[in-house]
Amino acid sequence: MKRDSRLSSVLHALLHMAERGEPMTSETLAVCMCTNPVVVRRTMGLLRDAGLVASARGPSGGWQIVADLNSVTLRDLYDALGEPTVFAIGNRHEAPQCLVEQAVNAALDDAFADAEALLLDRLGKITLARLSADFNRRYAAHRTRA
Amino acid sequence: MKRDSRLSSVLHALLHMAERGEPMTSETLAVCMCTNPVVVRRTMGLLRDAGLVASARGPSGGWQIVADLNSVTLRDLYDALGEPTVFAIGNRHEAPQCLVEQAVNAALDDAFADAEALLLDRLGKITLARLSADFNRRYAAHRTRA
DNA sequence: TAATTCGTAATATTAAAAGTTACATGAAAC
DNA sequence: GTTTCATGTAACTTTTAATATTACGAATTA
């Protein structure tokens, strides 16, 4: 099953944008995200709607982070992307007539709901600032080795 | 994103099989699972490989539960189905060169691993016997109302 | 006004899952 | 032992959701 990698993708883009101070074009971001400028615009557009980044047209335009890295969590990004489906496993029908299916769904729904709550809670505790610091730590270690 | 409903599906089938004592054909199961006999054979075949059900060919053949309902958990079914991907959200690359991506993946992987562990732990605590009891409770309540 | 860049609609491609067809294999009943 | 029923499985088709692409309009800068 193909997984939605937009969260990972926008994170990647945001950290690159944080390193740079100036705007990055959709084209530039597309290269570093291994995708297409239009896809970048569509995805970053969702973050803009959530007030996390800003876009500007014309020469010297592009995308920039406007939110405080300390206050933006991965949960915020998840929400901005439209709260995509978390699980690749799910029930067959939403409103089953069959009593067997009702029993099955009730049991599964509980377990999945708890796991989802745990995951989103975790995402809510990771800030962009922390990831940026993590990156810089790795970068320093990398330069030491080289 | 389309979700894998095989777990929900085989559960449904197993509970129906538990209610009946005798073998059920792929065709019968296909109807109650809203699918196709060949898909049923493919899926139930995985459960057979795990020793949970048995199949018999020829007249009066079909599928039957052979495991003890008290000892089979939803986790066992999950395993039998080949431990399908739990999350619909994931990283872009598995082995990224980019240090930014490494930082991103490390953070995400942790959160997802913990949520997955919680889910599988929960599934490991739900037995088929309990689901069957749950179904019978619902059935009794339904008959009372009717 | 020319160059650049986003915004977005329309379309195409891709990849994974599910469904289907077809037929071989094996078991039971008569 | 022949007929019937049912699984086993390979090959192929369909479906569907995501992603990618093309194309062009709108806005901005210089």
Textual characterization of the structure:
- Chain A contains six helices and two strands, in the order H-H-H-E-E-H-H-H.
- By secondary structure, chain A is mainly alpha-helical.
- Chain A has a two-stranded antiparallel ribbon with strand order 1-2.
- In chain A, strand 1 (53-56) and strand 2 form a beta hairpin.
- In chain A, helix 1 (6-19) packs across helix 6.
- The longest helix of chain A has 25 residues, at 99-123.
- The mean pLDDT of chain A is 90.
- Chain A binds a DNA duplex (30 and 30 nucleotides) through residues 1-2, 4, 25-27, 35-39, 41-42, 45, 55-63.
Provide key terms for this protein:
homodimer, about 150 residues, mainly alpha, Arc Repressor Mutant, subunit A, 2 strands, elongated, DNA-binding
Describe the protein's topology:
Two copies of one chain form a homodimer.
Chain A: H1 6-19, H2 26-32, H3 37-49, E1 53-56, E2 62-65, H4 74-80, H5 99-123, H6 128-145
Antiparallel strand pairs in A: 1-2
Helix pairs in contact in A: 1-6, 2-3, 4-5
The structure holds a DNA duplex (30 and 30 nucleotides).
Outline:
Chains A, B: InterPro entries: Tscrpt_reg_Rrf2, WH-like_DNA-bd_sf, WH_DNA-bd_sf. The first copy, chain A, has six helices and two strands; from the N terminus they run αααββααα.
